[in-house]
Amino acid sequence: MIKEIIVVEGKSDISAVKRAVDAQVISTSGLGINDNIINVIKKASKNRGIIILTDPDYPGKKIRNILSAEIDNCKHAFIPRDKANKNGDIGVENASPEEIREAIRNAKAEISDAIEEFTKSDMIYYDLVGNDNASKRRGLIGDIIGIGYCSAKQFLKRLNSFGITREQLEEAIKSIEDNEKNEIIEKE
Q: From the CB of residue 141, how many other CB atoms can be counted at a distance below 10 Å?
C-alpha cells in the first residue's frame, strides 16, 4: 500500500488509480474544489502526505496550482498527455494502470528552498524556448524526468522547484536526441 494519499480530480480517476495501486484516494470534485475539500486534503497531507495526480490539461494544472499554493510538502505525479488520451478525452481515468503506477513511482516533492539551478539562459541553450520545436522538446523531456508538459516559464519553475539536476536534464535531452537520430536513420 502506498503511504501517501493520492489526490485526483473525480470519481473516474479514483477508480483508475485504485485499479493500478493499493492506495487511499481523495477527489477534489474537479474545479468544484472548495475550502472544505482543501481542509480535508491539508489534514491528509499532515498525517500521511499527498501525491497530486491531476489530468494533464488546463483544469488539472489549475487544481494542482490551487493545492500547491495551499498545502506544503505536496508530491506531484504527472501522466504524459498522450498516455492519458482516449479518443480526444484527456484524463487520468484514460491512462493504463502501468502509466498510473509509473507516474506515482516518479512523483516529485517540491523543494521549499528551491535553488536556482536553471535560468532563462539555460532554457535557450537547451532549445527549450525560442524556437519552433521548443514546446515539443519540453513535453518529451518533461515526460522523461517526470515533471509533465507545461509552458516554458512553468517548466523552468518545475526544474528548480523539483530539484532536477543538470545531469538529469542532460540525460533526458540526450535520450530524445538519440531517438530523433534513430528515427532519421530508420526513414533512410
A: 23
Task: Round to the nearest angstrom and report the end-to-end CA distance of the chain.
Answer: 48
What DSSP element (H or E) covers 169?
helix 166-187
pLDDT tens for each residue of 130-171: 999 999 999 999 999 999 989 999 999 999 988 899 999 999
DSSP annotation string for 122-167? HHHHTTSSSSTTHHHHHHHHHHHHTS----HHHHHHHHHHTT--HH
Can you tell me whether residue 38 is helix, strand or coil?
helix
Cell of 105: 513511482
What is the Rg, in whole angstroms, of the alpha carbon atoms belonging to the chain? 17
**pTM score of the predicted model:** 0.83
- On whether the CB atoms of residues 97 and 19 are closer than 8 A, the answer is yes
Grid coordinates of 120: 532563462
Domains contained in the chain, CATH given: 1-110 (3.40.1360.10), 115-188 (no CATH)
